[in-house]
Backbone:
């Protein structure tokens, strides 16, 4: 199971890197989304996949799943959700101002905006 | 739990509380300004109390949510973090007062002050937290507030640079999560004191060194370490000067703090590779910064590249891992926060007066704005570390530590970089204040005066920081002790 997850995470990272290296702003944003999905899955896997065992630690219970990774992922998901929403709005405003979503055309320097 | 132990939460919660209240008074600039100052003064008071408490009783720790220490989220305040928290609040206070006359009513009406307070919440939280995942959360708090600050105003250039700034930070945040996940899979804990104990138990095998390098990449992006500083000059130049001052004085320093914390608390058992890497990267950072600082004729770029140089100097001190090197790094870190804040405020005034940030279009300001010239000169000497000003002691200790550790070449590069720093800031002085006066755009004299007050006081503070070194030494040595002996930190957190 861990191996399968590792492959899935690897594919997610691969796709994310490919998208982030493209020129189109929208593709880059999709790439960051995939990147954070990969990172979240990684936390889940790194905590050890406990199968169907319950996340409790009490006297007499020996077979339990680690509840911490879920809590971490929940936090990370909320943050990446907020940031993605913000960046989408920003991308739209940038597109409206610059009339392009091509990162190559968004260079500019101090003299020329 | 007595109520006194909660003291270390006040510098985090007070700005947060005031920020929330301010969200309800969007249009009322007078309320925005006064509540921000009141909130920061309250936070400053609590952080000064915190310093005296840490000085008297040692490291303060609290574990939240009534879970015992390795399981709940710990907040830890040692002298190092308490000093940084206090410096952060002081700088923010001056920048806020400076903003009154420079940021413009448009931005003041659009959540400018709440964003600053939220950012301070994140910065102080990152300095105080004792839990590595919680540090990620506080990083996000300060980053999201900084996203708002960098884009606020919505100028064409700001939008363009914000996109780059946010993308770099989103990717480095994802790397942060990935690194924490790896660390968790090896160590099985997130509490920083507990991580230190567990790494000591397994004796830092190779996988921990890999994680150490990953942390260096993550925090290196935030702290602008070579070769990860590429995003900084463009992004920092986009927002208005008060925002630039906050970013330059505080945000990169959070990354530096995180490197110092992890490299003195976690990865101390096999420093052959990790700290050597830090040493090499910090020297390259200094060289890259020096090239940038001399290459530009733009005021903002020159000082921004000086941030990069300072990051290199501080981390060079840390990589020595001896008493002189580390205490020099702490001295220099606080100095650099104060002096960079002051310098950005001062060049903001120069830009306001001349209407340009291009050195070639300036000249002869000494005839019309002599006080500005003299104050700038003092700040410039302070940055270069001319004794008895504030940069001197830190740099001297760092070089001393490097000689003790046998890094002669590195020490020489540090000393040579001081000359480059001096040259780069003197170029501003010579181009802007000497020479033939150029015709200045008509500007109001009142904002000039009210911008001068916080800038001058901040410069005076930095001078006092240099002159009062003798008085600060007990505090600095407390801060250094915790970095040199992780057991002090660990005992304070896990003993409760």
Residues:
């Amino acid at each position: 199971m861990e191996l399968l997850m590792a492959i899935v995470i690897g594919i997610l990272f691969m796709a994310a890197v490919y998208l982030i290296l493209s020129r189109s702003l929208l593709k880059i944003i999709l790439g960051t989304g995939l990147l954070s999905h990969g990172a979240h899955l990684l936390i889940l896997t790194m905590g050890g996949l406990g199968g169907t065992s319950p996340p409790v630690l009490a006297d007499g219970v020996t077979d339990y799943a680690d509840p911490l990774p879920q809590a971490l992922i929940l936090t990370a998901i909320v943050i990446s959700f907020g940031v993605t929403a913000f960046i989408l709005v920003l991308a739209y405003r940038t597109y409206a101002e610059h009339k392009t979503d091509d990162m190559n055309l968004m260079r500019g320097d101090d003299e020329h905006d | 739990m007595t109520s006194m132990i909660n003291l270390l939460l006040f510098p985090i919660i007070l700005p947060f509380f005031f920020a929330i209240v301010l969200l309800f008074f969007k249009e009322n600039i007078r309320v925005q300004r006064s509540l921000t100052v009141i909130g920061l003064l309250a936070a400053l008071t609590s952080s000064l109390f915190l310093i005296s408490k840490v000085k008297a009783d040692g490291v303060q720790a609290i574990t939240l949510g009534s879970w015992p220490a390795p399981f709940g989220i710990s907040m830890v305040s040692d002298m190092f973090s308490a000093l940084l928290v206090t410096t952060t609040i002081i700088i923010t206070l001056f920048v806020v007062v400076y903003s009154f006359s420079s940021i413009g009513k448009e931005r003041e009406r659009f959540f400018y002050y709440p964003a600053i307070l939220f950012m301070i919440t994140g910065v102080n939280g990152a300095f105080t937290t004792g839990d590595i995942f919680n540090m990620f959360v506080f990083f996000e708090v300060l980053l999201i507030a900084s996203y708002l600050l960098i884009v606020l105003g919505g100028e064409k250039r700001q939008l363009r640079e914000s996109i780059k700034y946010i993308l770099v930070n989103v990717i480095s945040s994802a790397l942060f999560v990935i690194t924490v996940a790896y660390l968790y899979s090896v160590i099985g804990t997130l509490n920083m004191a507990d991580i230190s104990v567990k790494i000591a138990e397994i004796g830092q095998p190779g996988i921990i060194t890999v994680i150490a390098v990953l942390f260096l990449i993550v925090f290196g992006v935030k702290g602008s370490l070579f070769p990860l500083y590429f995003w900084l000059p463009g992004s920092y130049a986009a927002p208005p000067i008060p925002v630039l001052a906050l970013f330059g004085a505080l945000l990169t320093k959070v990354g530096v703090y995180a490197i110092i914390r992890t490299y003195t608390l976690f990865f101390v058992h096999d420093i052959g590779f990790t700290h050597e890497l830090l040493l090499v990267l910090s020297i390259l950072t200094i060289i890259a910064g020096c090239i940038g600082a001399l290459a530009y004729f733009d005021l903002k770029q020159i000082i921004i590249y000086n941030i990069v140089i300072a990051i290199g100097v501080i981390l060079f001190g840390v990589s020595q891992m001896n008493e002189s090197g580390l205490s020099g790094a702490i001295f220099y870190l606080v100095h650099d926060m104060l002096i960079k804040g002051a310098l950005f405020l001062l060049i903001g005034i120069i830009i306001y007066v001349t209407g340009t940030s291009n050195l070639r279009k300036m000249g002869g300001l000494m005839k019309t704005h002599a006080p500005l010239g003299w104050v700038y000169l003092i700040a410039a000497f302070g940055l270069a570390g001319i004794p008895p000003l504030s940069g001197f002691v830190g740099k001297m200790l760092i070089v001393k530590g490097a000689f003790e550790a046998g890094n002669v070449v590195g020490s020489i590069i540090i000393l040579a970089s001081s000359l480059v720093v001096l040259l780069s800031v003197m170029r501003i002085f010579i181009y802007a204040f000497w020479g033939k006066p150029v015709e200045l755009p008509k500007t109001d004299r009142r904002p000039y005066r009210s911008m001068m007050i916080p800038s001058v006081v901040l410069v005076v503070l930095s001078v006092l920081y240099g002159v009062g070194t003798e008085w600060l030494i007990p505090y600095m040595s407390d801060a250094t002790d915790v970095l040199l002996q992780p057991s002090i930190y660990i005992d304070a957190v896990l003993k409760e």
